Amino acid sequence: MRRPKLLLTTVFGPYGIKNKYAEGLGMQMELFNNQITREQGVHSPRANYWTFPLYFLAENLDSLPATVLDFPTWKGYIRELQREYTHVGISFTQQNVLKAKRMAEYIRQHYPQTKIILGGYGTMLPDLAEIVPCDEICPGEGVRWLREYFGENPEAPIKHPIMHGVSQKYLYGFRDVIDDSGVLFPGLGCTNGCFFCSTSNKFNNSYIPFLPTGESVFAVCREAQKKLGVEGFAILDENFLKMPARARDLLAKMEQHRQPYSFAIFSSAETIAEVGVDFLVRLGVCLVWVGVESKKALFSKVEEIDVGSLLAELQAKGITVISSSILFAEHHDRVTLEEEINWAIGLGTDLHQFMQLIPFPGTPLFRRYVAEGKMIPDFPYTKLHGQDELAFYHPHFTSREAGKITRGAFRRKYETDGPGVLNMALTAIRGYQRAKEEMKTREQAGLSWNPQTLRYQRSTDHQTDQFMNLRIEKMRQRALEFRPLILSAKIFAPNTSSRKKAAQAAALYNEVFGKPAPREGVKSFGLVCFAAIEWFRLRMRGLFGRGELVRQPLSRRVEYNREFSTHSQVEAAEIPSGLQHRCKLST
Ligand code: SF4
User: Fold this and answer.
1) Residue 283 lies in a domain
2) Ligand 1: does its nearest atom lie under 6 Å from the Cβ of 268?
């Protein structure tokens, strides 16, 4: 019998290009441009992220060689299969099910002995086995499942990969090759169980911790700092603060070691309210994504919380806020939907995601809509991305007009608040200013941080808050990182109010930091040049009806070869996909 050899792969590219396997709109492998800074043109930050869960799975298998193939082209995929794998794991979302189908059918045709394992959110499709030929479906958490499947100990300790999260990023058309952030994957799932949420329902409304303590999170941060030189991290966890003891312990560890790491997190409103905004600032949260969902409190996570005030306080204290809300909920009619959009824009957050209500298979919403006959028959899974047509009959809106309304909501947010990156710059500089002022006030009043109450309180043995000084220095550095983009934000502003906002931002930066140094001036000017090229490129695409400029993620192949060195990564080669800016499907 052949020794098992596993390939773990994403679906093939190109992505965000409409073809017979997938949609274009709403399906770019970019979070920001796809669904947050949509309609912001040249101001939209462009970034692709590696598929971290695949590396996580490979890292945690001991008994067999494994390879991760991230964002392959079709040619790259079939070339990889020639390496004779006994098992191929395809990870995909519901919307990419036809790509998974093509990949699996190719295996069946050319490598009939190879076992096909399906994983990811696509496994929530009720008729998956009828669509995609497969031998196994991994329905939940993959590490335990794969370990059991390959006869390993499912309870063995978890090993956290140390890696950068971003595959490539562009700002105003400039490709920034420095990746100064890492990824943390503390756990999976969420216990809140919102009725529409795939994440929560895929894991039975439970939370599966991989890094259960603050100490374990801190250890991964330290290792990443040592190996990659990073001090900022994106936390891939739906609700990181839902385990407040872990977050408190993490802060204690950072204070003990005088190491102020920074974090971008997802959090529900009630967990932020529980620990308080000052705690988040001290912890080093520089960006938080909060699902506010609706003006009408539909979920316990926002009940009895003044969401507007909470988000305003986060921003006032220097934390970038991405809020998100749902369009075409059941209670929306023409009037209330308009009110909903106005309310969401009125929150004044740095960035906002408008997402249509999607009855994802596997959620209570889907089950109810099926029972009530509300689902549109044969609605393609490829269109379940929430930016275009509705998958269900809405009493007040047609499926087709939903896309236009959604796009209009993004446009209004942009025209009202201006470029999201400019908002982020203002939040960063105002937060830095405020942190310094509050520090001074606390010093004068003899207030110290109380880790029990998570508040600043009068203390008998008041001492200078050294850790907060380090944190404020981090906030200063972060604010300065935004400075070069203000000129581009101003020159390419969508309207007068945005232009004024950029001018105010420039004035505030001058007030706080003094006039820009020559080096900063050169950076700003250089960015304007890149922005002008990008702006022209977008304009031409618009004029010639060529649609969105889609940036394809890089492809990457990483081998985990246990024959020679257990758990070690022996090959990590980036394979340029050769598809940058091009829109043709490879054969
Ligand atoms: S709080 Fe967020 S992650 Fe948790 S169930 Fe609700 S939508 Fe899902």
Assistant:
1) yes
2) yes
Nearest-5° angle of CA 567, CA 81, CA 149?
Answer: 50
Q: Which two tokens stand for residue 519?
A: 């080096």
Same domain, 384 and 298: yes
> Which of 344, 371, 404 delimits the end of a domain?
404
Tell me the pLDDT of the chain (587 aa) as tens digits: 678 999 999 999 999 999 999 999 999 999 999 999 999 999 999 999 999 999 999 999 999 999 999 999 999 999 999 999 999 999 999 999 999 999 999 999 999 999 999 999 999 999 999 999 999 999 999 999 999 999 999 999 999 999 999 999 999 999 987 778 999 999 999 998 999 999 999 999 999 999 999 999 999 999 999 999 999 999 999 999 999 999 999 999 999 999 999 999 999 999 999 999 999 999 999 999 999 999 987 777 788 899 999 999 999 999 999 999 999 999 999 999 999 999 999 999 999 999 999 999 999 999 999 999 999 999 999 999 999 999 999 999 999 899 999 999 999 999 999 999 999 999 999 999 999 999 999 999 999 999 999 999 998 888 999 999 999 999 999 999 999 999 999 999 999 999 999 999 999 999 999 999 999 999 999 999 999 999 999 999 999 988 889 999 999 999 998 654 444 343 333 333 333 222 222 22
DSSP labels for 353-416?
EEEE----TTSHHHHHHHHTT-BPTT--GGGTTSSS--SB--SSS-HHHHHHHHHHHHHHHHHH
Token code pair at residue 443: 């010093």
In a domain, 53, yes or no: yes
Indicate if 366 and 259 belong to the same structural domain.
yes
Are both 72 and 109 inside the same structural domain? yes
- For residue 101, how many C-alpha atoms fall within 13 Å in the half-sphere facing its CB? 17
Centroid of ligand 1 to alpha carbon of 238 (angstroms): 7
Ligand 1 neighbour 239 (Cβ under 6 A) = yes
Residue 343, token pair as written in the block: 């309310």
Nearest residue to 560 (alpha-carbon basis) of 52, 39, 65: 65
Answer whether 192 contacts ligand 1 (Cβ < 6 A): yes
- 215 & 134 share domain: no
Ligand 1 contact via 197 beta carbon (within 6 Å): yes
**Full domain range(s) for residue 107:** 6-159+554-575
Joined together, the tokens standing for residue 518 give 């020559």
Are 53 and 101 contained in the same domain?
yes
- Our mutation pick for probing the ligand 1 site, out of 192, 203, 298, counting the most ligand atoms within 8 A of Cβ, is 192
Pocket of ligand 1 contains residue 516 by CB under 6 Å: no
Q: Which atom of ligand 1 is nearest to the CA of 205?
A: 5
Q: How far is the CA of 200 from the centre of ligand 1 (A)?
A: 6
